[in-house]
Write a structure and sequence with these properties.
alpha/beta; 10 helices; 2 domains; Rossmann fold; 6-stranded parallel sheet
Length: 219
Amino acid sequence: MLKYPCLVLDHDDTTVNSTATVHYPCFVEYMEKYFPNVHLTLEEYFNYNFDPGVIDLFTKICGMTWDQMMDEERYWKAYASTHVPKAYPGIREIMEEQKKRGGKVCVVSHSFRENILRDYRENGLPEPDLVYGWECPPEQRKPAVWPLEQIMAKWGYKPEELLVVDDLKPGYDMAKAAGVPFAAAGWANDIEKIEQFMRKNCGLYFKTVEGLRKYLFED
């Protein structure tokens, strides 16, 4: 018996350790070339991605035009295609146990679907049942509820049969708007602002992957 028939996992910093090892180094490299006056620490980069989110980070914090942001996106996509982040220890076992018990594993992310599937293959993770990534139109990306509505419609799930696991506020906002349970993934960083918000608002907060595993399959 599964506590949640469907796990809806974020990708970056929930399944794979990617911000510190891929996205932030790419950001720094791009800024040094094209926006040398912009300097953000890793903690600042995490915080701005958390709130107000990636689009506002580039347009309002870094001062990019929409065309410049599209150029940065192309740069990032090329960079990410040659840099594979590592999956967090224990994530594969959670996915395998979920599927072994007849459950689904879906992905809702701000990374591109092709990169997500590549990361799953390279890390030996089970293939996800559905993936909704950055290739979706802006109005369908989280925090929009559209991905969760598609998942529920495909298998006839009720909101309480899903669990969204995410490290950032857009995932929380999406789950809340859809009436879907949410668990905060706290293992990617030790940033006080993010942890305080997640602990206060999310109900479920896990500092370790093992803590999530025990909650899903042992409690």
